[in-house]
Specification:
Helices cover 2% and strands 48% of the residues. It is built from two helices and 39 strands. Strands 3, 5, 6, 8, 13, 16, 17 and 19 form an eight-stranded antiparallel sheet that branches. The protein is globular. It has two domains: 2-252, Sandwich (Jelly Rolls); 264-477, Beta-galactosidase, Chain A, domain 5, CATH 2.70.98. It is mainly beta.
Length: 478
């Protein structure tokens, strides 16, 4: 092994080069742990392996399905083999860590920085009020000498639940400042979590760590191995990348001089808001409505196309761009966003068959928006005319907060009307009626469809279309 030092100010970062980097290459700003085999880790137990891809079984606790290949680190504990933690050969001090992880249903794991400070990983899908022991939490410290109710202390819950469904890939970004010690070994500065983003949402900002969390594998230190918990459930990791710490502005997400007080909209008081909405990587939707719910599941709808184009968990809407100063008329989601398309097109089309090209717009369809009607819980059902029939499009949060249901109803049944349910990089059927979409970003679930949805190729993407025989019901799980 070759030992390399890189200094950031007065702080040393140490990375032991094994198979992570090619021979002779020097560690500079970035490094990635190679996942062709387990050679970057110490004494990997039998529960750990390398796979090509991983999916979860939503009907079974702690179950993952794996395929042969490389690039994905998998932990599959069993009743006979309860699993063990995995430690890198490398050691780190200050670090910016980014990785993707995938939880099995009901699974539990953790990322231990330097082996002693745990960031909890857990299937917390749909939970409204997460604690420090839930996904993204900074786990408690522990003192068995204290009274029972006080044994756990100094744990930090995430600001909101930024979790996604089991079987989907989640991205975490952790900026960590290691503790500092003088020449005698006395600690002079506590460790800090400078910031954590989970699935693009800031869940921690500048949290001081006064000591090791429960489950630490030793005492605090200047340098320590990265440790992945493996004795609590089935979990997978990929794209494990290490960088030097960025600027404070980059960690917090705030720009220099950005001292604007945000204008947040609470779904409890304002459940529906009309605004422009900018699609990430796409155009602006000028006639959009965003709909919030007490279940903390929200969505945006394009009134010009009858299209559901995005949804998110967590907090509702940031209206700062719309109302600060002159404003630009737009609002943006505050939670974990799932995009269903880069460019909204009509949700319904009349096609000769399931392989015919989709419509670019509503020209020639007789499309006419008719607004929406509210139910007794102020949930809108959108209505419009198209192809000579009236359409009602009712989108509602699932009670457990795990996604949305959608019911599209044609007032007058019309032949050859198809619904475009997804446009994505990939679509795969993982079980009967259950589809995993867009790089394992969300699920589509069809419980009772007379005509099987069709996965088709279109302009380098995959589309999922389904014939609408008067009514179409499906769920979106994310």
């Amino acid at each position: 092994m070759k030992l390399n030092y890189l200094r950031f100010g007065t702080t040393a970062f140490v990375w032991l080069l094994g198979t992570t980097l090619v021979a002779g290459q020097q560690l500079t700003d970035k490094s990635e742990i190679a996942l062709n085999d387990l050679s970057s880790f110490k004494d990997a137990g039998k529960s750990w392996s390398i796979a090509g891809s991983v999916t979860a079984n939503l009907n079974e606790q702690n179950a993952l399905n794996i395929s042969k290949g490389s690039g994905v680190l998998v932990n599959l504990p069993t009743k006979k083999n309860h699993g063990s933690d995995l430690l890198t050969l490398a050691e780190h001090g200050d670090i910016l860590l980014e990785l993707d992880y995938l939880m099995a249903k009901g699974a539990n794991s953790g990322i231990y920085l330097q082996g002693v400070y745990e960031i909890q990983l857990e299937d917390s899908w749909g939970m409204k009020n997460p604690q420090s022991s839930n996904n993204g939490g900074i786990y408690q410290r522990w003192d068995d000498a204290k009274p029972e109710a006080e044994k756990g202390y100094q744990g930090y819950a995430p600001r909101q639940n930024a979790s996604k469904a089991p079987g989907t890939w989640q991205h975490i970004r952790i900026a960590f400042q290691a503790p500092k010690f003088d020449a005698s070994g006395k600690k002079t500065d506590n460790a800090r979590i400078l910031g954590i983003q989970l699935n693009g949402v800031v869940i921690h900002d500048n949290v001081e760590l006064f000591g090791a969390t429960r489950g630490a594998n030793g005492q605090e230190k200047a340098l320590g191995a990265l440790r992945l918990q493996g004795d609590h459930g089935a979990v997978a990791f990929k794209n494990i990348k290490i960088s030097k710490l960025p600027s404070a502005a980059a960690i917090s997400g705030r720009q220099r001089g950005d001292n604007t007080d945000p204008i947040f909209i609470d779904a409890a008081t304002t459940p529906n808001i009309r605004s422009f909405v900018y699609i990430p990587g796409g155009p602006v939707v000028v006639h959009a409505i965003s709909v919030g719910s007490p279940q903390q599941v929200h969505f945006s709808y394009d009134l010009d196309n009858g299209a559901l184009f995005q949804a998110w968990h967590g907090e509702f809407v940031d209206a700062t761009p719309m109302w600060d100063g002159r404003g630009n008329g737009s609002s943006r989601p505050r939670g974990v966003l799932t995009s269903f398309t880069k460019k909204p097109v009509p949700a319904l089309a009349k096609l000769a068959d399931a392989q015919a090209a989709w419509l670019a717009d509503t020209t020639g369809t007789g499309f006419k928006p008719k607004g929406y009607v509210l139910d007794d819980q102020d949930r809108p059902a959108f209505t419009y005319n198209i192809f000579g029939t009236k359409v009602t499009d009712a989108i509602k949060p699932i009670d457990n907060g795990q996604g949305l249901t959608r019911e599209i109803t044609l007032e007058k049944p019309t032949d050859n009307i198809y619904a475009l349910v997804a446009t994505a990089s990939d679509v795969q059927e993982v079980s009967k009626g259950l589809y995993l979409v867009d790089g394992q970003s969300f699920y589509l679930k069809f419980d009772d469809v007379k005509d099987k949805p069709v996965i088709r190729d279109a302009n380098g993407k995959k589309e999922l279309v389904v014939l609408v025989r008067g009514k179409l019901n499906y769920s979106i799980l994310f």
